[in-house]
Design brief:
The chain has ten helices and eight strands. It has about 250 residues and is α/β, with parallel strands linked by helices. An eight-stranded parallel barrel has the order 1-2-3-4-5-6-7-8, surrounded by five helices. The structure holds 2-phosphoglycolic acid. 2-phosphoglycolic acid binds next to strand 8.
Length: about 250
């Protein structure tokens, strides 16, 4: 089970220090992998503050070139260098606000993996596609276009765009149907089984019903991961779920 926390452009140095203080006496479980994606400027800082804890650090994006004249971009090598083990690629905010297309996302993922980062590749349909019954087809296209050949030790995050930050989540049936669909497509393309995380308005109230859905291997949490108390409550729900189902 994987719990990922995407902080987006939130939490400054002082808030990060407060957050990590709250983690120090918490009893982490070896059944859960967890990764925090802080703002890029703080990967190093968070890495050092969580050195003694079983928490991985990730970058929120990386460029498809390793170095060069790309002002404002971040190299996968630099993420690695500042303690990152993971990187988010193709988040819908990057796709929509920064015009990253499928081809570019594929190159970013490929470069990240070649730099020994583990990728969480995000896919998700918009509300119109969902309402018109085209969600499965839309995700299949994204996977066909974005999955790099070297997709090792990496995950897919299913994040319906209409669910991010809105408090709306798909039904349990829709999540299970989509996760099963994603696993089948990735198996067809790469001949390997992968884990699929659900993301979009995951919070303390709905975590129990989401993690018990078949083929949900973890969650990618945005807003609800900004407070240590909520992040730990979500983490604890996952531990409890594993203990009940084992
Ligand atoms: P949210 O964001 O949990 O705030 O909906 C999830 C994400 O964008 O990764």
């Amino acid at each position: 089970m994987f719990i990922a926390a995407n902080w987006k452009m939130n939490l400054d140095k002082k808030s990060i220090l407060e957050f990590t203080k709250s983690l120090q006496n918490f009893k982490f479980s070896n059944q859960i992998n967890t990764c925090i994606f802080p703002p890029m400027t703080y990967t190093d800082y968070l890495y050092n503050l969580t050195n003694n804890l079983p928490i991985s650090i990730g970058g929120q994006n990386c460029h498809f070139e390793s170095f060069g004249a790309f002002t404002g971009e971040v190299s996968a090598n630099f993420l690695k260098d500042t303690g990152c083990e993971y990187v988010l690629i193709g988040h819908s905010e990057r796709r929509t606000l920064n015009n990253e297309n499928n081809a570019e996302i594929k190159s970013r993922a490929e470069t990240a993996i070649n730099s020994s980062l583990k990728v969480i590749l995000c896919v998700g349909e918009n509300l119109t596609d969902r309402e018109e019954g085209k969600a499965l087809e839309q995700i299949e296209k994204q996977l066909n276009d974005c999955l790099p050949y070297n997709f090792n030790n990496s995950f897919i995050a299913y994040e319906p765009i209409w669910s991010i930050g809105t408090g709306k989540i798909p039904s349990a049936f829709e999540i299970q149907e989509m996760h099963t669909h994603i696993k089948k497509i990735v198996y067809r393309i790469l001949n390997k089984n992968i884990n699929v995380l659900y993301g979009g308005s995951v919070n303390v109230e709905n975590i129990n019903s989401i993690i018990e859905i078949n083929n949900v291997d973890g969650v990618l949490v945005g807003g609800a991961s900004l407070k240590a108390k909520d992040f730990l409550a979500i983490y604890s729900a996952a531990v409890k779920h594993l203990n009940i189902s084992s």
